[in-house]
Amino acid sequence: MKRLLAMVLFPLAASAADLETKNYLVHIESACAEGDVSCNQMMYTGKSKISGNAITLSGGSWHTTCADGVTPCRFLGYRFANGNVTYYVHQDGLLEVIRNQDEVLVREQGQWQPDQFLSNTDSQGER
Q: Any signal peptide, and if so, which residues (predicted)?
């Protein structure tokens, strides 16, 4: 039952997912077992299409909390922190980068893509 619930609440539970927005390519990888409802072993690699600059962060899945205040409920996306800057990658493809919980640095809608972007940036096909 937990695995079925995970498939419904965590549709991107594959080992990797790519998001493309107007200005960014985002690659998210999970080190958790397939079917885990919540995962705090995620890696975010974001690359600017304009500057080519990239950043890699660790973080985890992001959920609402069930009525018991502990159990993860509805999957919202992924959350990654870099000091006082938090990167949110929403399930619907919205990329938000927020400083100090209220200053929006980036807010771009994107589309989930096949696992292709960062693997294509290296001529030898290495990540």
A: 1-16
Measuring CA to CA, which residue among 42, 19, 13 is closest to residue 94? 19
| Distance of alpha carbon 98 from alpha carbon 3, whole angstroms | 32
| Global pTM value | 0.76
Q: Residue 17's CB: how many other CB atoms inside 10 A?
A: 20
Q: Are 24 and 106 in contact (CB under 8 A)?
A: yes
Contacts of 3 (CB under 8 A, 6+ apart): 35
Q: What angle do CA 1, 91, 65 make, to 5 degrees?
A: 55
Q: Which of 6, 23, 22, 24 is nearest to 14 (CA)?
A: 6
DSSP string, 44-62: EEEEETTT--EEEEEEEEE
Tens digit of each residue's pLDDT, the chain (127 residues): 444 333 444 444 447 899 999 999 999 999 888 777 788 899 999 999 999 999 999 999 999 989 998 888 888 999 999 999 999 999 999 999 999 999 999 999 999 997 555 444 443 333 3
